[in-house]
């Protein structure tokens, strides 16, 4: 009986295989058994390959009947759900209704979407583990129909780590928002404290209000905010500087002289800090656009020599300038700012000895160098000197201590101009700062070399001052009268014409603020006064506006400009220059950065 069953079973398997292979009995006999064996081996290899993929897949895989439970699962799914093997999982989850794999409330939603679309990709849900905990997963599910009904096939990815990362990121964002809120609250508190401390006159309060209003619009117009802030905040400083300079030139008691000098030093520190902060902000916001031109190096070095020679003489330090006949390509104003900073630091930290400004050719570049014989900088401190508010304290420091922003500004300017900077120092012997600029082969128009302008006797000279700030007018009047000038003050050109020109006063010079009331400008004011007077009155602009547009306008109109806060020495030199006889007045120079 057994042999008969095996024979029939073998015969049945043979016929089934022949039908699967598309072979009839006659064909099988013709092709003989070796081909059949080969086909069977290929099928077995294919089955084993899919079985290996199924069992060793990194993601979970399962088949399930919608009306019952799991039909098959791979080891990866068992691991995800906390079971030792797939059979244990399948035996336990014989029905989805039991809630042992899907949450009872979640499964109907999954089933509804699957029946609606026939497939789901990236569907995120949670599977229940053997210990009752839940694991976050992402499902790719297909719905198929066979002779036994609807069959669900799914690939399962464990997204627990991704969920943890998302939760961590969310927490970090919340912490960051809290830190920003705390910092904002701190800044608001500091701002209020500053307002209470500075509350000396109503004009300053108005300036802070304008600055605050401008800050609220900063995201829409950074340049406009910075221009308004620089103008409004520098206005009261300018008035104070002029008044203090007036007191310095008067004969006062010794104890009063000391107090005036301390006020002067404090104002200089406030001015430098405010100017540096504004420059840092403008550079960081890309609000400063370089104007690259071909510049004679002799011209730059001569300007610096004229400016710093009095400093050298005051501190008994030798200043030597070694120039070159080459031209360079750079932004005059920004490059001068870099070199001024190098020279200022050299004199500040050199109590005796010499400071050298020179240039060395390096291929197609010139390295502009400033050497000093000061105490030098330790090697481990060289990396800190370009950071904001970082200074190297020296017992040999002379003059007023800086605020630690100068070299940070220098580094930003050098990066914007693509001019590499370098520093080397030997403790006890001195320091060298340098900036590398490209040599220019473009032709350069002849430029009048700067020179020391002798101070003229200003007695009785009528000078018209136009400024919309009453404090500035009072300060300018006090300083100019100290120089024995005849001062005419007006808040706009209409008042100047009505009070002075219409009564026969003939100003020899106009000093006008750039930003006047009702959006009027000092350039327009100069034009109106000149038209009424009927002659070309020499004029200069005094302003806190440092924008490229303003500088371009002043150059086009050939109007010299002094930036606020005004230094009395520069103001008197400019007045002396403009009041020279016409044949001796050369092309006007615009004030540097």
From TrEMBL:
Domain of life per record: Bacteria
Coiled coil (UniProt feature): 33-60, 159-224
Keyword Nucleotidyltransferase: no
Record-annotated PAC domain positions: 121-171
EC class name: transferase
EC number: 2.7.13.3
Database matches in Gene3D superfamilies: 1.10.287.130, 3.40.50.2300, Histidine kinase-like ATPase, C-terminal domain (3.30.565.10), PAS domain (3.30.450.20)
Pfam families membership: HATPase_c, HisKA, PAS_8, Response_reg
Domain Histidine kinase: 228-441
Domain Response regulatory: 462-579
Residue list for modification 4-aspartylphosphate: 513
Entry keywords, A to Z: Coiled coil, Kinase, Phosphoprotein, Transferase
Protein name (database record): histidine kinase
Record's keyword annotation contains GTP-binding: no
PROSITE patterns: HIS_KIN, PAC, RESPONSE_REGULATORY
InterPro entries in alphabetical order: CheY-like_superfamily, HATPase_C_sf, HATPase_dom, His_kinase_dom, HisK_dim/P_dom, HisK_dim/P_sf, PAS, PAS-assoc_C
Catalytic activity: ATP + protein L-histidine = ADP + protein N-phospho-L-histidine
Xref: SUPFAM superfamilies: ATPase domain of HSP90 chaperone/DNA topoisomerase II/histidine kinase, CheY-like, Homodimeric domain of signal transducing histidine kinase, PYP-like sensor domain (PAS domain)
């Amino acid at each position: 009986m057994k042999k008969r069953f095996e024979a029939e079973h073998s015969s049945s398997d043979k016929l089934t295989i022949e039908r699967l292979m598309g072979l009839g009995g006659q064909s099988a006999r013709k092709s003989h058994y070796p081909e059949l064996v080969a086909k069977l081996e290929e099928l077995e290899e294919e089955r084993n390959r899919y079985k290996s993929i199924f069992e060793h897949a990194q993601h979970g895989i399962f088949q399930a009947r919608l009306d019952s439970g799991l039909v098959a699962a791979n080891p990866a799914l068992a691991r995800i759900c906390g079971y030792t093997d797939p059979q244990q999982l399948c035996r336990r989850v014989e029905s989805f209704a039991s809630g042992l794999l899907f949450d009872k409330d979640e499964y109907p939603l999954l089933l509804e979407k699957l029946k609606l679309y026939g497939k789901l990709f990236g569907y995120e849900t949670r599977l229940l583990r053997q210990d009752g905990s839940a694991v976050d997963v992402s499902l790719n599910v297909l719905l198929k129909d066979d002779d036994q009904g609807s069959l669900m096939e799914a690939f399962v990815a464990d997204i627990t780590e991704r969920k943890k990362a998302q939760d961590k990121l969310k927490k970090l964002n919340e912490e960051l928002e809290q830190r920003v809120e705390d910092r904002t609250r701190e800044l608001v508190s500091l701002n209020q404290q500053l307002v209470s401390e500075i509350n000396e006159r109503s004009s300053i309060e108005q300036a802070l209000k304008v600055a605050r209003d401008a800050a609220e619009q900063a995201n829409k117009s950074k340049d406009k905010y910075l221009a308004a802030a620089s103008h409004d905040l520098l206005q009261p400083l300018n008035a104070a500087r002029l008044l203090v300079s007036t007191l310095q030139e008067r004969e006062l008691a010794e104890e009063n002289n000391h107090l005036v000098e301390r006020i002067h030093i404090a104002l200089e520190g406030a001015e430098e800090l405010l100017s540096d902060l504004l420059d840092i902000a403008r550079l960081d916001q890309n609000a400063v656009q370089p104007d690259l031109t071909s510049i004679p190096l002799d011209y730059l070095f001569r300007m610096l020599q004229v400016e710093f020679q009095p400093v050298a003489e005051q501190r008994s330090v030798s200043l030597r300038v070694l120039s070159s006949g080459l031209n360079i390509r750079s932004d005059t104003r920004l490059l001068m700012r870099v070199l001024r900073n190098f020279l200022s630091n050299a004199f500040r930290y050199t109590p005796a000895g010499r400071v050298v400004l020179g240039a060395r050719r390096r291929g197609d570049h010139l390295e502009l160098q400033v050497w000093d014989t000061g105490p030098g900088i330790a090697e481990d401190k060289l990396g800190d000197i370009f950071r904001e508010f970082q200074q190297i304290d020296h017992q040999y420091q002379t003059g007023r201590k800086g605020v630690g922003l100068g070299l940070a500004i220098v580094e930003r300017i050098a990066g914007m101009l693509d001019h590499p900077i370098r520093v080397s120092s030997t403790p006890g012997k001195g320091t060298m700062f340098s900036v590398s600029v490209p040599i220019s082969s473009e032709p350069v128009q002849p430029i009048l070399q700067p020179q020391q302008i002798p101070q003229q006797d200003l007695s009785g000279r009528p000078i018209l001052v136009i400024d919309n700030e009453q404090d500035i007018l009072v300060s300018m009047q006090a300083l100019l009268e100290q120089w024995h000038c005849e001062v005419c003050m007006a808040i706009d050109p209409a008042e100047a014409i009505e009070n002075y020109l219409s009564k026969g006063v003939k100003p020899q010079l106009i000093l006008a603020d750039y930003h006047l009331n009702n959006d009027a400008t000092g350039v327009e004011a100069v034009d109106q006064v000149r038209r009424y007077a009927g002659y070309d009155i020499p004029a200069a602009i005094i302003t806190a506006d440092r924008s490229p547009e303003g500088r371009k306008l002043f150059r086009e109109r050939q109007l010299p400009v002094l930036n606020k806060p005004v230094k009395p020495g520069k103001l008197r030199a400019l007045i002396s220059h403009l009041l020279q006889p016409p044949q001796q007045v050369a092309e006007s120079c615009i004030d540097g950065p």
